[in-house]
Amino acid sequence: MTMPIAAMIAPVTPLQQNCTIVWCTKTMKAAIIDPGGEVDRLVKALAEKGLTLEKIWITHGHMDHAGGAAELKVRTGAPIEGPHEDDQFWIDRIQQSGEMYGIPEARVFVPDRWLKDGDKVTLGETEFEVFHCPGHTPGHVVFFHRETKFAQVGDVLFQGSIGRTDFPLGNHQDLIDSITQKLWPLGGDVRFVPGHGGMSSFAAERANNPFVGDCVIAAMKAQGAAYQTPQNHSPG
Asked: Which structural domains are found in the chain, ordered by start?
């Protein structure tokens, strides 16, 4: 049986952000999720796979995830969908952040469509659901393909960690709520691509993640303000 979608991960920028190319296997129409940079390599990857870029999807406005979106749109004509409009603060700072991190080609962009919780985005003959998951940034969204139990979660959740919330407008409790109230109900069998590092499943993270594992959440509730959150050394 042919799966309705396929995906490949193409880490980009010195920060090794997991830019993800997903496509409808029936139409070979593709979306690039979080083109943070290295647009030449991404365009080449599309050609090598015989794919036509239909959409550019952005999980959040940080430079390493969105810095190449403007150039990719100019080169392909594909519309940019996402993130949530609450990330305008970060989009406005993409060029400044790029200069800071030695990625001067990073550019500010204007989304063709802001996304909100409950939206649907289409790709070929397939459909992804959008979940607004603030915390790492206020406008962060997650893309979920229900039929294949596949999610691209950006910097919300990692294998063994969660997104940082020490950046401007970050909120730790919002992030915990996003993960436990938006992602966990989707099912333990969901496999996800994080913004950095290896893939994992929601079941594995509920069992082992030191920030949002089930036993950790239970301890948080039991101890309240006395609970000591471990230090977060995640890459994003």
From this structure: 5-226 (3.60.15.10)
